[in-house]
Structures are given as structure tokens and as C-alpha cells.
Amino acid sequence: MARTMQAGKPYPIGPRVDARGANFALFSAHAEKVELCIFDPLGRRELERLPLPENTDGIWYGYLPEARPGMLYGYRVYGPYAPTEGHRFNPHKLLLDPYARELDGTFLLTDLHFGYHVGNPRADLAMDRRDNARVMPKCRLVDESFTWGEDRPPRRPWKETVIYEIHTAGFTRGNPEIDPRLRGTFAGLRSQPAIEHLLHLGVTAVELLPVHVSVDDRHLVRRGLSNFWGYNSIGFFAPDPRFLGSGGHTEFKQTVAALHAVGIEVILDVVYNHTAEGNEFGPTLCFRGIDNASYYWLPQQTKNHYMDFTGCGNSLRASHPRVLQMILDSLRYWVEVMHVDGFRFDLASTLARHGQGFDPHAPFLAAIGQDPVLSTVKLIAEPWDLGEGGYQLGAFPPGWSEWNDRYRNMMRRFWRGDGGMIGDLAGRFAGSTDIYRHWGRRPTASINFLTAHDGFTLKDLVSYDHKHNEANQENNADGSSDNGSWNCGAEGPTEDAAIIKLRQQQRRNFLATLLLSQGVPMLLGGDELGNGQNGNNNAYCQDNEIGWIDWSGKGVSGEDLTPFVSKLVRLRNWGQLSHGHFLDGQVKSDTGMRDITWFRVDGNEMNEADWRFPNARFLAVALSGKPRPALILLNAHYEPLSFTLPNWARIASWHVEINTVDTEGMGEGRFMSGDKFEVSARSLILMLGKVEQ
Fold first, then answer.
1. Beta strand pairing status for 401-404 and 378-381?
2. At residue 626, does pLDDT exceed 60?
3. What pairing do the DSSP bridges indicate for beta strands 205-208 and 265-270?
4. What average pLDDT is seen over the chain?
5. 446 - beta bridge partners?
6. Among 263, 158, 207, which residue's Cα sits nearest to residue 581?
7. Residue 222 φ then ψ, to 5°
8. Mean pLDDT along residues 355-372
9. Cβ pair 401, 380 in contact under 8 A
10. Does 434 qualify as catalytic in the annotation?
């Protein structure tokens, strides 16, 4: 006997299961009718279509008695198919619930998913009436109960944070120490070998590339590739099935709990700037068929097209109240239900577009800033998008940290050997005061990075002058051609011992610079192991050995820099080398020393003329700190330099802690103030001072 839905409630939006059944609520301001479609346990047969009986303020809702966790469902939404007016309703297409907690099945982008007749000269204007339910993943009702026990968020201060950016599958697939059955999954990420490596490194947070449900682009599938990185989201509440085992979404919770138990935070890289539905020629999977005119930015005059600030075909309209509500609901869900500790927002400038362009007081930013849950977690912006006025480094409000690409670019050019960079180098090293010292922000607003998922790995950065993306099958036209890289004398693999030694030394230079700079350091997973991608600087589609971390360098002298990174992290925290405030060169009451001082090679303090020297490739900086002050020497010159150790404050002697010339990066030796010290070519030295008693 057919069931009938009861009135239910318009809130909360999404599915909500209780002891008697489930409430369903869906936003669509322009729909004329919404049907809840129930499927058999295998998701192959549509059993019922039940109209949602109520509509209040654009929320369609109803209550289904006896609905239980595990039930598979989807939506059909009725309304005008009028692309020139911005509407693309098509009830022949089964749609995902934007608030679905879990999906059953995987996407196979056939012509059935497209709301128009593919191949028609005016394709987007002609409705396709074929039903896609047979090949469409289904939403699953879930029981969200979970025993968290003593789990507590680590709440690591920004000043003590060291981020490790990884892809869940890429980090685990190639690790021979992880059970093969767990590789590529959240369970693999919480395995003992994975956690032991993170603890050995000393990182305090993992930043996971997107874990939301995503779709493989059709053109990639046709070439035997996939959207491996996952920056093609379609479900903002559901973890991607490709990372799950038999335990469903609870496996993610178990992984968070395991990482929290050892003091490691979990930060999610999230993609709310666009969706997997693409431009007007993309598929109808969710938002487009629910309420295209509300969810997406559309041009006022040509509403059959999309405003594309992202380079991905569409832009999610975060300034719309209900779209903004969905984003905030999603974020709170991952904090309150899944216990994550923060977010990195991909192309965040798109989310802050309001009116004519980027607005630091846009609804999205204002709502986050006053939210009692979200304002307390770690918030990281990628402060740009591809639209006009999209580059907004330093423009995000208090409470936000930002990926600092100026830091990346500067450090790459300096260690490549470019001259005349020391002024900018000093600014980036000291926390980018010129970018962030306003609105009460601190150096921790700067997320310093040298490499990330997007671009060369550290090994490739010192091994290639040019990108080599042929494996992406786009004629090497994709990816940036401006990488600031240097191959050290040979393009790609080489057996030249001198070049290999220099490349390893350059890797140590980069890592030491990153971990000794003011701000928050972010390491790319695998850089410590000598992981490379054969010169591919855009491995987004490589779910294979190119995109996976290569663990073969583990334990290999010169290649495995895990102990080197670990020591730098310990020195950073123990020696108070990471300051929570901007350094201004003033004497501090707790140390009796100036917090930062810059020196010339003769040991005297730098003057204005020294900063303008066009061929300068050397910089020396002293940082006050407890229990011991530090002296850092950076020499990117191709020849060694003789440096006079400064008679600074009350320092009697200096002890070498880090010397990147050493194969393991470890230093040794005690020197007196006033001594001459040879700084090897292309090297970094860290010394700790002993204060006179």
C-alpha cells in the first residue's frame, strides 16, 4: 500500500531521522512541486514517489513515518525549463539531496545525467526527457549516533601549529607498511604506521584535500583519468565513498578521534566556490535541477549562462541567504558532528563576492565571524579566485589566516639564486608585516608554504626548470609555467653525484627556511621523503604512482628528511622561534634584547644602503627568545662567505644546531662572538646563543 507523507517541519533543512520516521526538507524558491523518491535496498528500482506536502518560505517539507536508517532516496523537482530565465527544472532527472549525509553508488557521467539533449546545436535550450535514476547514486538515511568517548579538540594555538597537507588516498596508497586493505581510505590514515610518521615529523595538524563527495569529469574518464584531488564537489555533508570501507561515514569519525588522541588536529580543504555541475553544458545532478537561479551566479542579461569566477564553469552564490545557510550548516555539521578542527577554503574570494566584487564584509565572512561555533575553529582562505578583482591577499578580516603565495614566490626566487631579493626576503621571513599588520591581525595570519598539492613537489622544485605534464594528456598546456624552480644543472633524473648532493641540500634549505620563518608553516606531504611527480605540477588527475606519495625514500640517507624536519619543529617550539606577535626591533623586557636584528657579513647591523644592494644573496638575522636567542644565516650565493659572528647583546658564544651542508642537516661546533665563520655556498645555518652570566 502506498504511503502518504505527513506535514512535518520546515526545519532543520535536510533529512532528520527520529524514532518514528524521518523528516525531509528541501529549499527551492522557484519549484512548483517536489517529490521524494524511495528506492529498493540495492538502489535499482524506484518504489515510490511521494510529493512533499508543505511549502513555507521556499522550504518544501514532509514527514515519512517508519523511514529508517539505510533507506535510499532522491528528489525530483518540478518547475519551468526556461534556461534564458535561469530555470532548468527537469523532473526526469533524479537529484541528490544537498544535505545528504551519505551516498550509495558512484557517478558514471552518461548522457542520461544531462538535462538537455547532448549534441543539439542549441543544446542547453532543449529538455532531455530520459530518466537517469538507474545510473544515479542514491542518498542514504544514516544513524548519526557515535560514541566519541573522551574525544576533545586539541585546540592547538596558531603559534604552535605546523600543518601537513595530504590527500587521504595519496598519503596511504603507496605506503608498504599500511595494510593493503586499508590503503586509500580513512582507516589507512588512522593506521599505526601513518600516525607514527606524523608524530615523528612533529606536525600538529593534517590538512586533507577535499573529502566531500565529488565527481570525475567526463573528459577525464574518457582519457582513463579521474579528478583525483576531488576539487569537484557535489555533496557538502557526505564523505566521498572512495575513502570509505564497510563502516560508512563513521569511519571518518573514527579517524578524527584517533588523530585527536595523539594531539593532531584535522583541517578540511573545502570547495564551496563551485560545484561539479559545471557550466550550461554540464550535467544536472543536484543544485541545477533544484533551483538553478538561486544557487548559482547568473548574468543578468544572459541567464542561460553562468558567471565563472572559478575556472570551473560555475560559481556558487554564497550571498544568497539559503545558499549561505547551506554552507554554514555544512561547516557546523563537520565541526559539531564530525569533530573537525578547521577549514581551508578553496578560492575563498568567490565566497566573499557581494554586489560588484569582493567585500571583506560580505554575508559569508560576516556570518562566519559572528557564528559561535565556526568563529572558534581554524579558518584558512585561499585569498584569490579567477575573476576580476579576485586576488585579495591580506584583505580577509580578523579571525582568518591566508595562504601566502608571496612567501612561496619570494623564497623560491631567493634559493634559486636571484639577486637583490633580501628586502622582500626579510619581510616574508618576519611574518609579512606589510600584508597583515592591520585590524589587529598577527603573523599567524600568514600560512607560509613553499610547495602544495597545486604545483611542483619539493623534489621536483629542485630537479626541473620546466613542467612536464604530458601524462595529463593536455599537450603540457595545463599547470603554471612560472614555478620559480631550478634544476641544479640537469633537467629531471640524473646520476651526477654533485647535482644530487646540491638538490638534497636545496631541499634542506627550503625546509629550514619554512620552519624558521614567522607565521604558520605548511608542509606538503611527502616532501620530507623526497617524493616527486616526474615534473608534473598539476597532478590533479593522476590516481596512480604519479599522484601518490612515494615512500621508497624512507630511511635513505639524504633523501629521508623526517629527522631533520622533526628537529626543526622541536627547535621552533622549544626555542620560541615562533613569535605570536610582529617583530619590530624593540628591546623586550623579558629578554633585555631587541626581538629582531639584521646583520651584514662583517657582523655589523645593516643600514638602508645594505638593503638596496642589487646583488645581495645573503641575509643574517638574530631573534631574541627564551631560553636561548637564535642566529640564522641564509646564503643563496654560489660561493661561500666569511661571516663575523656579531657581538650582539650579551651573547658570549654561539652553538651550531642546523647546517644544511651536512647530509642530515645537523650542525655542530661552538664559536665565540667576533669569530669568523664560513657560511658554505647555498646553505642555511641556525645557531643558538649562550648569554653571559
1. parallel
2. yes
3. parallel
4. 94
5. 402
6. 158
7. -65, -25
8. 94
9. yes
10. no
Q: Is residue 530 within 8 Å of 556, Cβ to Cβ?
A: yes
Q: Is 131 a catalytic residue?
A: no
| Amino acid at the residue 129 | R
State the Cα angle at 195 between 191 and 201, rounded to 5°: 155
Give the C-alpha distances (Å, rounded to integers) separating 581 from 406, 442, 509, 573, 577. 20, 6, 25, 15, 11
Peptide bond preceding 239 in cis form (omega within 30 of 0): no
Options 346, 402, 527, 528, the catalytic residue: 346
pLDDT digit string, tens, across residues 560-609 = 999 999 999 999 987 567 888 898 888 766 666 788 999 999 999 999 99
Sheet containing 59-65: order of strands: 14-17, 21-27, 59-65, 54-56
The three cell numbers locating residue 421 = 631579493
Q: What is the pLDDT of residues 28-59, one digit of tens each?
A: 999 999 999 999 999 999 999 999 999 999 99
d(CA 156, CA 403) in angstroms, rounded, equals 19
Choosing from 217, 382, 402, 550, which is the catalytic residue?
382
Map out the domains of the chain with their CATH numbers: 14-140 (2.60.40.10), 318-384 (no CATH), 596-691 (2.60.40.1180)
- What is the per-residue pLDDT across 139-160, written as a single tens digit (0 to 9) for each? 999 999 999 999 999 999 999 9
Tens digits of residue pLDDT in 115-128: 998 877 565 578 99
In 3D space, the residue among 424, 439, 494 whose CA is nearest the CA of residue 462 turns out to be: 494
Diameter of the chain measured on Cα atoms: 93
Give the pLDDT confidence score for residue 690 in this predicted structure.
85
> Do residues 528 and 508 make contact, with C-beta atoms less than 8 angstroms apart?
no
Decide: 351 and 272 in contact? Cβ < 8 Å.
Answer: yes
